[in-house]
Every structure is written in structure tokens, then in C-alpha cells.
């Protein structure tokens, strides 16, 4: 097998990196046993193809699945400046594919035969039957597909190029979108990377047009919106406006993804609509340590990524970077209107749209959003402020996790909390870590009073509530985690809301029976958007899984 990164390490005598999927060939590019191949073959047909035969091309949707019986398949990367390059060669008993086999997104790579080859071709529809029926083979494939995508991201294979200034708000927005959606990309700083200048000269791009994304087709996208970028990269799956789904889930946070997994696994025609990326606010968490089954913790993005793949494995479709702008709930099927045009229809609806970040009431706050003011503390944001002092505002678990995470890479973390202590709002294990860390200063009964800067934030002032004493420090990055407001504006008066705008369900909506039922039959709400819900990842996951039984009961009664 020709696997460049692994070969390079072995030839130079370097120590193998166990976190690199390309060094874990047995899992990333496994070989099926003859018995497993015999079972898989019943879902496809054997073919013998000449050397150089194209199996699929980068950009195609709905590609087939291939197992090598004899010969060799080359996997090609189109992200280089010159002709496509072969970066993987698959031989006897190995198989093609990565995560796009579980969805209808564009393939990131191409495949062709290197020599005359005897293969098993499994058509796309039959691949889903294979994955459902042969669970041991599906487990091997699923692990391999995830590792292959991680490998492409790590090594910049099939990658687009993002060029911009390090602290530019739109560049950060695009980088965050690509990262959270697991799309391979390289980031070049126009002020520091010589290669960035070469790209700009080659494509005749001026610095005034920053940031730009250059895709593998050498198409230049000038500061695209998230939706435009998703469309250009083939992240958006096609949606049939005439199709009536059994259930549509609005929001791909923990609650929405759990609902999608259970609904799809139980045979319901399931569509998930998400405005930015899977995970919701939980997806921006650096580490969740009190979620059942992960004793060493897991990042919110990793948890969301696994849940997304799991939902797609069972047949759920995800419409990413699509906002719901309104709803017609006066008739059934319900009609959802999408931002930018288009409609979708469904017999039942699960609202898991979560909440939007709350903002500080400070002068010039909006001006610094994306230019020093952040709502997530992941590895990407930590790198932006490495070695600097930062401020974290908030006293909940999200703020605590952010402070602990940022303390590892920054010079110091100033934690600003309006309350007298953290006991009533934060988990005990986080409080212990914050108080024990010499790199975190907890400032209670304190609030942000002033922000200063030019194009981006450069100084922050905070004031103690009782003494009135203020302090100003030259700090360029502030992480605001002070709770969230419900994302219910798109409901247009369709449902009963509580005084704070959360969706009233169960007894709060004057109903008996399901605690997730809303004032409109056939519409349910779970997770943070639901009035009275516990704002925890585990609670949202529980609600999302349980609500599917209510969906079944409603559909059975409706259909007689």
C-alpha cells in the first residue's frame, strides 16, 4: 500500500504518532476478511475494469462503494496546484469511501484503477442496506471513514485554502464554519505566510478583498456568507420541496441530533435543518467532562460529529447552513420557509433550535463582535490569543470550561462574574479547578464597563459592583458566556411561548400527556428552547430521544 505520510515517517526513522490516522493503517485502511467480503458481495456485483478507469470524480454526489478483489485503486487529491496527485493506493481486500457515503454531499476526492482490477461495486442504495444488515462490517467501515476524514483534515488533503488576516472577524467566521463542519482546509495569514502572497498574485486578488476561499476548482470566493460557502463546497444536500417528511428537526444541537438518531433508526423519514454546524452551543465547548460514558471527557465538536454521523448512518438527512425563516402551522403538513428561499414540508416537527448567545450591554460591544469578542473557546480561538491575557465573562459551566481550557495556552485568564460566587451556577469539579489554577483570577461581583479599540478590541475595563473600583488592562480577546436567549423568532406566533420567549410545553402549555407537546398538535420542543428545561447536554439528549415516541403516537393517530 502506498501511503505517503506513513512511509515518510518509517523511512526517516521518526516515531509513529498514534494520533495520526495515516499512521494507523490497520484501522484507517483495513482489510476485510474473505468471509466478510463474501457477505458484502451479495449486496453488489463483481466487475473487471481496465487500468485508468474512473470510479468516481471529486464533486460527484451519491458515489458507489468499491472493494478490491485483485488489482489496485488510486485515490486522488485535487487540492494541489498542478495535476491531481495520488495520495492513497488501495489493494486486495481494502475498500473505498469516507463520510460522504452516509450523506448526499459532494465527494472530496476521485478514484480510479491503477492497473486492471477486479472489484465489487456496491451501488449507493445497496450500500445503505449493507451497512444496516452487516453490523460487523459497518463498524469497520464507520471507524475507517471517520479516521479518513480526520486524516484529510490533519494533512490538508482535499482542502480548500482560506486566506485572510489572523484576527479578521470574517476570516475567523469562515475558519470556524469549516472547522465545525469537518471540512478539510488550510489557513494562510496574508501578513505572515509567503505562500499567501503567492496565491494572491496567482489569482490577482487584492488585500482589500480579504478574506477569500479558494476551492479545489480554483474558484475564488470573496468573503462568502456561510450559506454561500456551503453551497460552493457541496456541503448542502438537495431538498425536495414537494416531499412530505415524517418529521423535521429544526436545530442540530444535542437534542436535535438525538431526536434525529432515534427517529431515523426507527424508520421515520427524517430531515434536520441547521443554521451553521452540528452541535449547537454545546459544539463550541472545549471539553465536556460530566457526560455519561466519557470518563476522560470529550469536546463538544467531537460529540456532535459522532452524533451527526450516527444519524446519517440510519438515513437522516442534514441540511446544513439553512435557516428556518418562518412556518405555516395552520394546516398539516406543516410548511417551513427557509431563509434565502425554498420550502420544506412535514407531518410532525421537533423544535430543537436552542438559543442564541446573550450580549453584554456595553457601549461599542457590537463593533467588536468577531474582532476580539468571542462566544466559543475551542482550539481555534485559543490559538488566536496564545500567550496573551484574556477575559472570560460568565459563571456557568460553559464559562468554567472555557476558563480552564484557555488557561493552558494563554498567559492569564481573568474570569468576570456578577454573582458573589459560583456555587449556584457551576459544577463543583470546575469550581475546584478554577480556584486551584494560578493562571485564573476569579473576579466576583464584577462586570465589564468599557471596551476600547480601533479595528479590533485592544483594552477592557471592569468595575467592582460594591466598591466602584475599576481596572483597565490591554486585553484583546474576551469570551462572553452569560447564557442565551431562545431562538424562537421564526415561529411567528404559531406556538404559545412563556414570558421569556421559550416554547411552552406540557402542563405549561395547558396540556396533559407528553411534557414535550406544544400548543400545536404535531409540534414538539426539546432542549434549551423548551420552557423549564434543564440546560445540560445530557438533558437535551434525553429529551430528544424520548420525544420520538410522542411523534410515533401522533402519526399513528393521524394516519388511523
How does this model look, in words?
The protein is an alpha/beta fold. The protein folds into 4 domains: 4-155, Jelly Rolls; 160-232, Glutaredoxin, CATH 3.40.30; 244-356 and 489-559, FAD/NAD(P)-binding domain (3-Layer(bba) Sandwich); 365-482, FAD/NAD(P)-binding domain (3-Layer(bba) Sandwich). The protein is built from 15 helices and 28 strands. Strands 12, 13, 14, 15, 16, 17 and 28 form a 7-stranded mixed sheet that branches. Helix 4 crosses helix 5 (135-155). It is globular. The termini are far apart.
Structure, briefly:
With 560 residues, this protein is an alpha/beta fold. It folds into four domains: 152 residues, Jelly Rolls (Sandwich); 73 residues, 3-Layer(aba) Sandwich (Glutaredoxin), CATH 3.40.30; 184 residues, FAD/NAD(P)-binding domain (3-Layer(bba) Sandwich); 118 residues, 3-Layer(bba) Sandwich (FAD/NAD(P)-binding domain).
Q: pLDDT below 50 for ≥5 consecutive residues: which ranges?
A: 1-14
The helix content is 25-40%
Morphology = globular
Supply the number of helical segments. 15
Cα end-to-end separation: 57 Å
Structural class: alpha/beta
Q: Beta-sheet strand percentage?
A: 15-25%
Number of strands: 28
CATH architecture of the largest domain: 3-Layer(bba) Sandwich
